[in-house]
Write a structure and sequence with these properties.
Number of domains: 3
Radius of gyration: 26 Å
Helix content: 55-70%
Distance between the termini: 37 Å
CATH class of the largest domain: Alpha Beta
Strand content: 5-15%
CATH architecture of the largest domain: 3-Layer(aba) Sandwich
Number of strands: 7
Strand order of the largest sheet: 2-1-3-4-5-6-7
Length: 380
């Protein structure tokens, strides 16, 4: 070993030892923080307070960003670090809350409870101490007995079967039972529930897939139908499970979902189908890909990794959705002349017009997509 190397080793060892000591202290502090979190969980659980407190979280992040600058630390790094810590804390709180029932003596019937989404909700109810019954096509002959004295009938079946199932189950329901559905369209199912059942009615649309381990910060749209007061316990239970509740009318919900679900999924399908038709070499394109293209292609691949029948139901669910998608296809043909005439100025003019329409959201989109790209770079 040279003299310089020996000096280096002698000098770096105590520095590394100090770093190791600091790391141990950080772990000890995180453990102490988790202990306090457990106490918060107990208090929230006792008083049925929701886990997610957005104002509290953002105040904490803002304060830490200021403090990090005072200590000559990167505020963005500090925010990233604490959002991971907060997320982990929130997930643990949410999992604990799964064992808290707002109305623990209630009897729940999940129609379609052996399906993925129905099974997810059945599991959540069971964890929260509810008596859960499952009704499927296989045991429909027991429908009358299974509906006896239930407090909630939750319909979770494919879109095309929902209205018929609501119609079939309603005669068996107690008059005071809450009838709700989990369908991604709301106008027709809620109308059918109101027509078939004289008691409380609530439309529910979870904006997530059934593979989640918890509902932390997942959005659930509710569309009140009748007797909103009698359904508040169910909405409160969703909140305790960590969900963010967005209230809407059936008309507004379906109109927005035409864009958020049907158009987005169909446009993604068209892009993927075009790549397939062109026999594009995906592995080779990824070698040339910027992170944003990898992210975009990842979203396309994600669609085709899932259930085709599920997406066909979503895309073809209503005449209004199909009309919107035809309008979208026709809108693409408007740009053919631009390409044939090599009209760059027309492209620029239309680009600027759309950019002005997007307004401040473009800056927000830039920040959010940059964050995702940075995370993708870290992984790959």
């Amino acid at each position: 070993m040279t003299k310089d190397n020996k000096n280096f080793q002698e000098q770096i060892i105590p520095l590394r030892d100090e770093i190791d000591s600091i790391d141990s202290k950080i772990l000890s502090l995180l453990a102490r923080r988790q202990t306090q979190v457990e106490k918060v969980v107990g208090l929230k659980k006792a008083h049925s307070i929701p886990v997610y407190h957005p104002a509290r979280e953002e105040d904490l992040i803002s304060r830490l960003r200021i403090q990090s600058q005072n200590h000559d630390l990167d505020p963005d790094f500090m925010e990233d670090l604490y959002r991971v810590i907060i997320r982990q804390s929130r997930v643990k709180q949410t999992q604990k809350m799964e064992h808290k029932g707002v109305r623990p003596n209630a009897k729940i019937l999940v129609i379609g409870g052996t399906g993925q989404m129905g099974g997810l909700f059945a599991t959540l109810f069971i964890k929260s101490g509810y008596a859960v019954r499952i009704l499927t096509e296989q045991n429909w002959n027991q429908a009358s007995d299974l509906c006896h004295e239930i407090d909630l009938a939750l319909v979770s079946v494919p879109i095309e079967k929902t209205v018929r199932v609501i119609e079939k189950i309603s005669p068996f329901l107690p008059p005071e039972a809450l009838l709700a559905d989990l369908t991604s369209i709301k106008k027709e199912p809620v109308h059918q529930m109101l027509s078939s059942h004289g008691g409380p009615v609530l439309g529910v649309h979870p904006l997530f897939g059934p593979t989640l381990s918890c509902l932390d910060k997942q959005i659930i749209v509710i569309t009140p139908g009748r007797d909103k007061t009698s359904s508040e316990w169910f909405t409160e239970q969703l909140t305790l499970w960590g969900a963010v509740i967005v209230e809407s009318t059936t008309d507004e919900h379906d109109e927005i979902m035409e864009i958020v679900q049907a158009l987005r999924h169909f446009a993604t399908f068209c892009f993927g189908e075009f790549l397939c038709h062109r026999r594009t070499k995906l592995s080779r394109t990824l070698e040339f890909s910027s992170p944003i293209y990898r992210l975009e292609l990842g979203m396309v691949g994600r669609l085709f990794a899932q259930d085709s029948s599920l997406y066909s139901e979503i895309i073809f669910a209503t005449p209004e959705r199909r009309a919107l998608l035809k309008e979208f296809i026709l809108s693409l043909t408007r740009h053919v002349d631009m390409l044939e005439t090599n009209n760059k100025q027309l492209f620029i003019d239309q680009f600027e017009h759309v950019a002005q329409w997007f307004g401040p959201f473009s800056d927000q989109a830039m920040r959010e997509s940059t964050f995702l790209i940075d995370k993708l770079i870290e992984r790959f």
